[in-house]
Design a protein that fits this description.
The protein is mainly alpha-helical. Helices cover about 80% and strands about 0% of the residues. The protein contains three helices and no strands. α1 (about 5-30) packs antiparallel against α3. The longest helix has 30 residues, at about 5-30. It is rod-shaped. The two termini are about 25 Å apart.
Length: about 80
Amino acid sequence: MTGKQIGGIILIIAGLLVGFVGLINVLDLIGAQGNKMIEMGLQMSGTSMTSLWIKYGVITAVGVVLLIVGIVFARKPIPQKSE
């Protein structure tokens, strides 16, 4: 187990956590579509639905990127045959 692999495992865990949080928020936004009370509350707070979509979409994307980078780092290196 090299340091790079341990770092990869940590990145995988972080990616899963971040991606999970982003996904929950995206699913929450999908459920909130068309809900008049939520839209009124957002207007009162000065937040648009689009900015929330962008924010949670970016959070989810960062989680996926962390996960992919973690998997790349955590893979066992293929032993090279030296002749």
